[in-house]
Amino acid sequence: MGTDKKRAPVIDEETAPVVRRIFELYASGMSPRGISEVLNLEGVPSPATYAYTQTGQKPKPNVMGLWTAVTIREMLNKIIYIGHMPQLRRTSLSYKNHKRFRRDESEWAVVYNTHEPIISQELWDRVQERRKSVAKGRKTKIGFTHPLSGFLICADCGNKMKLCTSVSRSTGKRFFHFDCGYHIRYGKAYCFSHYIAASIIEEIVLNDIREMAQRIVLDENAVREEFMQRNAELADNAVKSAKKELQAKRKRVEELSRLMQIAYEDRLKGKMPEDICLNFIQRYSDEQKRLETEITGLETKLAETTNTIQSADEFIRNIKKYFAAPELTREMCYELIDRIIVGRSSGLSGKEREIDIVYKVDIASVLRHKFKK
Ligand SMILES: [Zn+2]
Question: Which residues have C-beta within 8 Å of that of residue 47, sequence separation ≥ 6?
């Protein structure tokens, strides 16, 4: 972006398409590192190089004029691209002291819609949503976020599985495994070991994604149709049973009001001792409160069941990209997977180990989704 005479930013037609492309690539699941590699390979000038050709201002020696993941990450955060101006990012202490210091992000004032945006609000929102989700994966001490971090759940206690790392004494090689976080913290007394090598679970998940993608590519329409049909059935059943439950609960709430009234009247007529009456009323009103929360929960659930159809199309589009994915990436997991429930290792129970991959959209109920290892 450059500035016009009033110092308002104007769109630089040469660089705007690059900005848009960066946002698009990120929203579609590419990592900042991946994006920077693509741009460098294509010889797209980085902001530092571009500034140099425009103004003659030399880039800092450590910048080297190439795109980096850091440059990309910084760009993804700039509200200037959607037409707003951040103000007071730096401030002078007094007119005599021109030393500037950076203010907290919370103190920035934003002037909205000061200029024409380069990217749409919709694209911006998609990018920000993805940034938040990717940020949730915990980094290990060596600064590495495993693609599956935060997705694995212990089947026996329901807690998150933790990534652990160790270095082999004989080979000096570092390797990773996951285990139930509560087993790690509290030991066997709380939960069993659910040890699984990171490479194995990665392979299971990657194979499952590829297999689903391949089946979808083979007959996309049939899969979509079957999914819709099954989904309609499931939604129908869910709506029916939720409605029934709701009706029963509302009836009980009314009954409780009546019971409280009777207890109160009996007390007035002297038929019931005061402490017993209070006791009754307390119990009734507790139950009523509990039911009311449950009723609100059911009402929200009912509203949500109708919402899944567009997400199926999006999911199909996403998973098709990974038809021949060479490796599992965090972006992939984030796009497709809701959670993965990891059962106890087979050594203890003698049974086959169960690993349940729960996708964001339950398309797996049409395809096969249970893996035994
Ligand atoms: Zn556990």
Answer: 15, 71
- φ, ψ of residue 323 to 5 degrees: the values are -50, -45
Q: Determine the distance separating the centroid of ligand 1 and the alpha carbon of 179, expressed in angstroms.
A: 8
Q: Which two tokens stand for residue 36?
A: 């920077």
Centroid of ligand 1 to alpha carbon of 136 (angstroms): 21
> Distance, CA 234 to ligand 1 centroid (Å)?
30
The answer on pLDDT for 153 being more than 90 is: yes
Instruction: Give one DSSP letter per residue of 97-110, joined into a string.
Output: ---EEEPPGGG-EE
Instruction: State both tokens at 271.
Output: 């038929």
Distance 261 CA to ligand 1 centre (A): 47
- State in Å: Cα 130 to ligand 1 middle: 28
- CA dist., res. 267 & res. 143, Å (int): 68
Q: Record the pTM.
A: 0.47
d(CA 80, CA 273): 71
User: What would the pLDDT profile of 235-251 be if each residue is shown by its tens digit?
Assistant: 778 778 888 888 999 99
Q: What is the mean pLDDT of residues 7-22?
A: 81
Query: Distance from the CA of 345 to the center of ligand 1, in angstroms?
Result: 12
**Secondary structure class of 9 (helix, strand, coil):** strand
Rounded to whole angstroms, the Cα distance separating 364 from 211 reads 11
Extents of the domains making up the chain:
2-134, 221-309
Give the integer Cα–Cα distance in Å for 105 and 103: 6
Taking CB atoms within 8 Å and a gap of at least 24, the contacts of 260-266 are 260/284, 260/285
CB within 8 Å of 3: residues ≥ 6 apart:
9, 10
| CA–centroid distance, residue 286 to ligand 1 (Å) | 33
Question: What class does CATH assign to 2-134?
Answer: alpha beta
